[in-house]
Design goal:
With 249 residues, this protein is an alpha+beta fold. It is 36% helix and 11% strand. The chain has eight helices and seven strands; from the N terminus they run E-E-H-E-E-E-E-E-H-H-H-H-H-H-H. It has a five-stranded mixed sheet with strand order 2-1-5-3-4. A two-stranded antiparallel sheet has the order 6-7. A hairpin with a 2-residue loop joins strand 6 and strand 7. The longest helix is centred in the C-terminal third of the chain and has 19 residues. It is elongated, with a radius of gyration of 20 Å. The termini are far apart.
């Protein structure tokens, strides 16, 4: 495959950025999108040019590091992570636009790399269980209804990639935050912080500068792990419940 790549280049966080055009040839349709970028970078290095900086880690669709907007879509044309997107999803001769996540809360560090530490700070605000658990308990020691277990597992699949924010027209982080709130709030281990968790995490999300949610639904469409849009509704119910109980104290 021969492809034309239009890639966002930005020297650092303070520099002006812009699209640069590159040609790559003899690309196998069986390699991943990140491997294609590796080929481009080898080509640039051999030519004495600066390689394109992009985020990656496990390359197995688990860590969520591979954050790219490809032809206007978060993670590209398939509902998967960028590292699991293969070049057979494109045609010989295609022009592909490659950009970083676009959100006020995700400032560009260099080229295609953005600072997603805002997500870390939302987690630090309450996305954890403080009760000491010691060694792993016996599997049936704490009964959990199957519906609650399924709900928790569904939301625990969130890998924090940020595609929901990149796809949202408002740059909102509601789907990410709701996944992190919901997967703990329905479990017995998460019950002690149930109210403070949702209040603190939502407050921190707002402080980080994410946009407001208008339920456009683009977040759920772009999510590679299929976190449902109803997750936001569930979190809103938790937030209202916690707010009302706090007001009565």
């Amino acid at each position: 495959m021969k492809l034309t790549l239009r890639v966002w280049r930005q020297r650092n966080a303070d520099a002006e950025g812009g699209m640069s055009t590159y040609e790559v040839d003899d690309i196998s349709p069986d390699i991943s999108f990140l491997e294609m970028l590796d080929v481009l970078n080898e080509q640039l290095i051999l030519a004495g040019e600066e390689p394109v900086a992009f985020d990656h880690d496990c390359r197995e669709g688990i860590c969520g590091a591979c954050s790219l907007v490809i032809n206007g879509d978060a993670h590209g044309p398939e509902r998967t992570t960028t590292c699991q997107l293969h070049m057979r999803s494109f045609q010989d001769g295609d022009t592909i636009d490659i950009e970083p996540w676009r959100a006020a809360a995700f400032p560009v560090i260099k080229d295609l790399v953005v600072d997603r530490s805002a997500f870390d700070r939302i987690i630090q605000a309450g996305g954890y269980v403080t009760a000491p658990t010691g060694a792993a308990p016996e599997a049936h020691a704490t009964p959990v209804p199957k519906a609650d277990a399924d709900f928790a597992f569904e939301h625990a699949e969130c890998i924090g990639c940020g595609a929901c924010v990149a796809a949202c027209p408002n740059g909102a982080a509601m789907l990410f935050t709701s996944a992190k709130v919901n997967h703990l709030n329905v479990l017995p281990q998460g019950a002690p912080e149930r109210e403070t968790r949702v209040l603190d995490m939502v407050a921190r999300m707002d402080e980080e500068g994410f946009g407001g949610c208008t339920l456009a639904g683009e977040c759920a469409t772009a999510c590679p792990k299929g976190i449902p849009l109803m997750s936001i509704t569930s979190m809103n119910k938790e937030w209202l419940r916690a707010t009302r109980r706090a007001a009565k104290r």
